[in-house]
Amino acid sequence: MRKRLLAIILGMVMILGILAGCGDSGNGDTSGGGSSSGDSSGQTIRVWIPPYAKSDAELTDQMFWDQQFDAFEEENNCTVEVVILPWDGYKQKVTTGLISDEGPDVVYIDTPYDLVESGAFEPLDSYFTEEEIDNYLYWDLGQIMGKQYVAPMLVGNASVMYCNMDILNEAGFDRPPETWDELIEYCLAIQEKVPDVQPFLQNWGGSGKGILMVSFLPYYWQTGESFLDENGVPAINNAGGLETLEFLKSLQDKGIFDETITAVDDTKSLFQEGKLAMYVGDTGSAKKTTEAGINWEVVPSLAGPTGIQATWIAADSLAIASNSPNKELAVKALKYMLSAPVMDAFHEQMYAMCPITKDAKFYDDERFQTMYVDQAEIFHNWPAFANSDAFYDYLLKNIQAMYMGQLTPQQVLDDTMKQYEDFVS
User: Is the pLDDT of residue 247 over 80?
Assistant: First the structure.
């Protein structure tokens, strides 16, 4: 009830903010905007974004974005005020800004659902042509509640299976596993032929929803089931959910995991030390894995029981504030930020991730290029729904209880859904 009341209050404040913005648009003050018509002359828009430059970098985030917007400002006879907000408290600062007259017109966001639900963001569907949409590789990752509320900007760090090929070769394999059944086959062979290493582990001793993005969600999506129902509510208590948990539990039942699995919390280090044959981690770990001397290959996704490939990917995005008095100019700035020349410069000078448009360059490890460019359809971001953190917390703890022998796979599903339903009611 308290959460529902908070949402209502936030929505009312948003409405007041929107009305205030509309009322101020004709008073001649261009410090925060002006007209929302196609003529951008004299308009000012604000862009809020977090930092990505290293702390000792000569080129700061402020310098980079100011330089990038010089040409945009000249072409549109406007002013773009870029504000770099620190990561600490970023979401709270954005939320506060969006209900004020001094907030952003264009904003970077990584967890948009609550702000979308409160009405803080403008739907983007009508601002993009089919031709423009077709050029984006990950456009669908911006869909929330049936509309395009955000445009993916920084996409990458996908959850992929790393394989130590020296260990796999010693066990008699010349390629990574490609299916659930092959993963188990490989693990049992490694236990027999290379007994001094662990074949495969997951971080079930960790905390936070990040565990689920590498250890549960990819396998669930590989069953072909949708995470949300038609009402945007979690609906994993289905055949796919059960199949996923039974597969994960079988790793323990077959002796691949032992009773210490709920204490494992750093599979990446074990892999980079050569003590682990396979694990699922993010593509951002590739450089350090190479530096550690590991002869590695990756498989983007295992194929599930019916051959479906799917895995998790980060998809931080840009959005337009619904109370922006200069929406047309704001959208134009958003498109400019996502354009190939700007994103190429960002990936080269600031933070390398995969391209988001078909005409952009690839700056990440070449072993990921085919995956990111040609297999974009296998990637999923966090499902967007109300009170998601609570749901993920219940699911994680219940899976840990399953590995401790306290719950069956079906009970994990039953208990998670009941706990979540009780929470939201």
Answer: yes
